[in-house]
Amino acid sequence: MRLTIVGCGSRGSKLAEAADKMMEVKRIYLVDEDKARAEALAATVNKAEVVEDVEEELYHCDLVIECATQAAARQVIPKVVARGVDIMIMSVGALVDDDFREAVTEKAKMCDSKIYIPSGAICGTDGLRASTVGEVQQVELITIMPPVSFEGVKYVEDRGIDLKSIKDKTILYTGTAREAVQLFPRNVNVAAIVSIMGIGFDRTMVTIGVDPDIKTNYHELKIKGEFGDLCTHTYNVPSPINPKTSNLSVFSAIAALERIVKNQWVGI
Amino acid sequence: MRLTIVGCGSRGSKLAEAADKMMEVKRIYLVDEDKARAEALAATVNKAEVVEDVEEELYHCDLVIECATQAAARQVIPKVVARGVDIMIMSVGALVDDDFREAVTEKAKMCDSKIYIPSGAICGTDGLRASTVGEVQQVELITIMPPVSFEGVKYVEDRGIDLKSIKDKTILYTGTAREAVQLFPRNVNVAAIVSIMGIGFDRTMVTIGVDPDIKTNYHELKIKGEFGDLCTHTYNVPSPINPKTSNLSVFSAIAALERIVKNQWVGI
Question: Which chain B residues have a beta carbon less than 8 Å from that of A230?
Answer without folding.
Answer: 123, 232-235
